[in-house]
Amino acid sequence: MTLFISNFNNFIVKSILLLLVLFFSYTIFIYTTSPNINKFQNQWAGNYAKAQEYIYSDKKYKTVIVGSSMASCLYNEELSNDVYNLSFAGGGVLTGLNIIIKSGKIPENILIETNTVERATDTGMIKRLFPPLVWKIKKFVIALQEQYQPINVFTDKIQKLFGTTNKEKL
Predict the structure, then answer these.
(1) Which of 72, 75, 150, 168 sits a CA distance of 20 to 30 A from 117?
(2) Which residues, in sequence order, are CB contacts of 129 under 8 Å at separation 6+?
(3) How many CB atoms lie under 10 A from the CB of residue 84?
């Protein structure tokens, strides 16, 4: 019986060590390849990644746009470098405003798209974005951020291998 427990404990320790090695290897891979993720599995994941990008970015934006799906159609690449689009597809203005407040990154200007002002704050999203202590760790361990989940990173790398136009990549 003692031999079995000893072998089982060895297995657990080896498994945890393997997990840590794989996790840190993946984190280093992300840091070295700097993937530019712009496609997500679903709308919710895209909204969540957009919010995390704003929260964890070192950049201080002069202007932030908050709103619903109408404003979320504006691409950051088409906006000035000091403007960030924190509008959510299927979301509302209040969620973006709460993220700005909780992150402590208050811009000089906030542009509000008012198509659907009556939508309440997505409190579930706010809770997932700002869990006590953990949300600050995600700034430094980017592998924990939604944008850098393995499926998103590897999909980005595969798309870049197979073509130059959007049609070819799809």
Answers:
(1) 75
(2) 48, 51, 52, 55, 99, 102, 135
(3) 24
> Is the C-alpha dihedral spanning 97, 98, 99, 102 positive or negative?
positive
Percentage of residues in the chain having pLDDT higher than 90: 29
Buried b (16+ CB within 10 A) or exposed e, 18-40: eeeeeeeeebeebeeeebebeeb
Q: Return the H-helix or E-strand segment holding 167.
A: helix 166-169
From residue 82, alpha-carbon distances to 23, 64, 76, 130 in Å are 33, 8, 10, 24
List the helix and strand counts (H, then E) for the chain. Answer: 8, 3
The answer to whether 82 touches 105, Cβ cutoff 8 Å, is no
- 23-31, long-range: CB < 8 A, 24+ apart: 23/143, 26/143, 26/150, 27/141, 27/142, 27/143, 29/153, 30/142, 30/143, 30/148, 30/153, 31/142
What are the angstrom distances between the C-alpha of 126 and each of 27, 44, 89, 90, 134?
25, 13, 15, 15, 13
Between CA 23 and CA 20 the distance in angstroms is 5
* Residue predicted with more confidence, 38 or 117: 38
